[in-house]
Amino acid sequence: MVLVGYFSAKEKKLAELMASAADELAARGAHVVxxxxxxxxxxxxxxxxxxxxxxxxxxxxxxxxxxxxxxCEQADADAVIFVASLTERQRRTLTIMLGRPAVGLPDIExxx
Length: 112
Fold this sequence. Notes:
The protein is α/β, with parallel strands linked by helices. Helices cover 41% and strands 18% of the residues. It contains 4 helices and 4 strands; from the N terminus they run E-H-E-H-E-H-E-H. The chain has helices spanning 14-27, 62-75, 88-98, 105-111; strands at 2-8, 34-40, 80-82, 102-104. Strands 2-1-3-4 form a 4-stranded parallel beta sheet, sandwiched between helices. The chain is globular.
């Protein structure tokens, strides 16, 4: 599976958060084949919107969604796990756009 993190530019421990999420998935028997990070507030003008998603439909920017889709195709990933929780609309939209299930890690935890 592909692991995707969405973080504010203020987040200084994103590598640790991604590693922790990958470890948690590995402990559940999942194999993370790729990790992708979307950061918000890095570019000029983004600082004011740092806590907001790039898109309410997908959480990510359109270009990052394409990057995730390409990574999934290349790795033949069976799912995409987001470090953040996704809304139902985001889950549906991303599942369609990525051609495989998309779910937030916190949502998996609440089901387990």
